[in-house]
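Deviation from plan, reported transparently: zinc ion complex.
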Amino acid sequence: MDRIIIFDTTLRDGEQAPGASLNQKEKLEIAFSLEKLGVDVIEAGFPVSSPGDFEAVEMVARNIKGSRICALARAIPKDIDIAYQATKKARQSRIHVFLATSKIHMRYKLKKAEDEILRLAVSSIKYARNLCDDIEFSPEDASRTEEAFLYRVVAAVIKAGARTVNIPDTVGYAEPYGYGGLIRALRENVPNINQAVISVHGHNDLGLAVANSLAAVKNGARQVECTINGIGERAGNASMEELVMALKVRQDYFGVTTSIKTKEIYRTSRLVSKLTGFVVAPNKAIVGLNAFRHESGIHQDGVLKKRSTYEIIKAEDVGFKVEGLVLGKHSGRHAFLARLKTLGYKLDEKDIDEAFKRFKILADKKKQVFDEDLVTIVQEEIGSNALEVWKLEAFEINSKSNSVPQAKIILKSSGKIFEADSGGDGPVDACYKAIEKITRLKCQLLDYGIQSVSRGEDALGEVSLKLRSKTKEAMGRASSTDIIEASIKAYLQAVNKIAG
Ligand code: KIV
Ligand code: ZN
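Because the crystal trials were delayed, the predicted structure below was used instead.
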């Protein structure tokens, strides 16, 4: 059976999503997770865009062994050299060169005629092939490129040595019939097309990125470019979890496989959500909290009688165990560790101690501790060893109708206790103002969101936010059964990143 190459661009196009900036450590953490997920190619960044991006790609290239590491470059020698430098330590590397070919991009953005574009495309591929064996070429805005010109460009770059030709729907303009037809037409009209892998790259401006990519696969594309949770430029990219599961569940129709270990999907989705601060909508296919819940009585009855009456995917196949009660306050460390192992987590001793302490506190407050709760606790503990400049000791809130809410905050730093009171527009605002008095760090709250991460009236509330202080921005995320506590902890996490 044909295998579809999964090319993940969460760290490049995904990171281009407004507000999703990731630091080097976070990028590496995601790269490890993608490797574990079984991704074939990780597009780790656009190294020429900044020294930070260069270092992040280099770090990913040095550390990841199981996936090919790719870097993006414009069709100019300087970009290609830098992409090569950033990826050359990888066990397997790729350089991805792009150049726009649509009339509108050539005329207004590049101010170049067709022949010059063709010449540049060919010379850049030849240049890149001298440095690296595996070169991918993207005629940017391919779906709006005049077809006859696209055939010429594709044939020429394959002749020049491109191993993969990607056909991006850069502005999310395509629809499935047209996009599938374009892939078929390329196969019929480009004489040397069989010497390269056809790849597709969808954007979600019309909500069609996944559908378009699937139509392309049906018509012969053998690489799909995608991101975890579908994050990316504007409305995002094709979502990897949706693509992979569609190919798996409808293997009868598509007749292809992928190398993705689907049980790792949920864990990776949570990690990307945590690190980017992009909350996953509850109704999001595959990884949304409601994706496997049945609310209506008729559906519940059907599922109890035979699961497949209303379920086409088993939650556990994507590593999402919503079934039944997991642990409670009488569960011991052994049961806790066994459950984490089943969920795919291996923690070091220090993280285990901290996570177990948090589990016990949570189990005291919550009757039932579900897998979603455990995943949240553990993801918060992993990598939480960052310097804690400010730690919450205690808080007190006074809030009633027709009066200004008051907050008292007690923080600890370097063994000393600090305390402040403040009023505010609401209880959360009052807490943040009191924290600001203690830390003397003036912060602007750029984003604040709250969602429930598990089930029941006593569900964990998860707060994610973004702060800006002068030129620094940082994300914070924390959960608690008390949303004020979660709000304070998320704020302090971001403050500590800025101050640390
Ligand atoms: O959307 C796009 O065209 C891109 C290219 C760089 C492949 O992201
Ligand atoms: Zn893109």
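The pocket of 3-methyl-2-oxobutanoic acid (ligand 1) is lined by residues 13, 72, 98, 138, 140, 166, 168, 170, 201, 203 (CB under 6 Å). We consider this an acceptable substitute for the interim report.
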